[in-house]
Design goal:
The complex is a heterodimer of chains A (151) and B (81).
Chain A: E1 3-5, E2 7-12, E3 15-25, E4 30-37, E5 45-46, H1 48-52, E6 65-69, E7 72-87, E8 93-106, H2 111-116, E9 122-124, H3 126-131, E10 134-139, E11 144-149
Parallel strand pairs in A: 4-9, 5-8
Antiparallel strand pairs in A: 1-11, 2-3, 3-4, 3-7, 6-7, 7-8, 10-11
Chain B: H1 3-22, H2 24-31, E1 35-39, E2 42-47, H3 50-60, E3 68-71
Antiparallel strand pairs in B: 1-2, 1-3
The chains are: A mainly beta (151), B alpha+beta (81).
């Protein structure tokens, strides 16, 4: 079964967290993104930082369902017609076309809030794993993690 | 951009991501609280805000489509997602 390898990073409290890298594309975006694989998250979302680094105007993106994350409130603003490209361990592309992907747009756009949320990463959630029929292996003690799919 | 180019960018970005993960302790001490642009296993730019980072990258003539943008949370921060 093809695998997509993840990197393990001790971002908080020296605990290992699994990250997966993908290349996001749509009409206005073409960039690599590192996302936390979070099976506890029902949503797959792009972080405020990742959205801002595409130069999309976040002040015009304050719409969508309200979600609460890490003590902050965000609009889960849908970005349309995206393709997420992953690289397998056998150097092939695993492409996922989505009608929309969520983006975390803070409900408050003042400087303090933007600064406070800048460390919240993009997230690949269990919606994505289920929809794409991906299994997730994570062994933090030996720092191994990967996504796996059946052909 | 064709699939070959996407694969090439992805391979480089994955290597950069793994490099960041390996060097995280060292980089966190140096760049605590910052936003970093990483290319070819190097921090090519750091800033306190995305706007500042984008402006610096523009001056350097860097293409954002090829760079990994990462943040380094302060050591004393802890949050549950």
């Amino acid at each position: 079964m093809p695998r997509i390898s993840c990197s393990i990073r001790a971002i908080i409290s020296r605990r290992p967290f699994p990250f997966v890298t993908f290349f996001l594309r749509n009409l206005h975006i073409a960039k690599p993104i590192d996302a936390l694989v979070d099976t506890g998250s029902p949503f797959t979302v792009l972080s405020t930082n990742d959205i801002m680094s595409t130069r999309l105007p976040i002040s015009k993106m304050q719409s969508g369902e309200i979600v609460s994350l890490a003590g902050f409130r965000f609009f889960n603003h849908p970005i349309k017609n995206v393709t997420m490209n992953f690289r397998t361990e056998t150097d092939e592309l695993f492409k996922v076309n989505l009608p929309t992907i969520g983006s975390l747009i803070p409900t408050k756009l003042d400087k303090k809030t933007i600064n406070d949320v800048k460390h919240i990463p993009s997230i690949v959630g269990n919606d994505f794993l289920e929809d794409q029929k991906l299994a997730f292996y994570f062994n933090p003690s030996v720092k191994v993690a990967y996504l796996e799919y059946k052909i | 951009m064709d699939d070959e180019q996407v694969l090439k960018i992805l391979k480089r970005s994955e290597e950069d991501s793994k490099w960041l993960s390996r060097k995280y302790d060292e980089l966190q001490s140096k760049y605590e609280g910052k936003i970093l642009a990483i290319k070819d296993k190097n921090v090519i730019c750091d800033a306190n805000t995305v706007e500042e980072l984008l402006s610096k990258l523009e001056e350097k003539g860097e293409d954002l489509g090829f760079l990994l943008i990462e943040t380094v949370p302060p050591k004393n921060i802890s949050f549950i997602l």
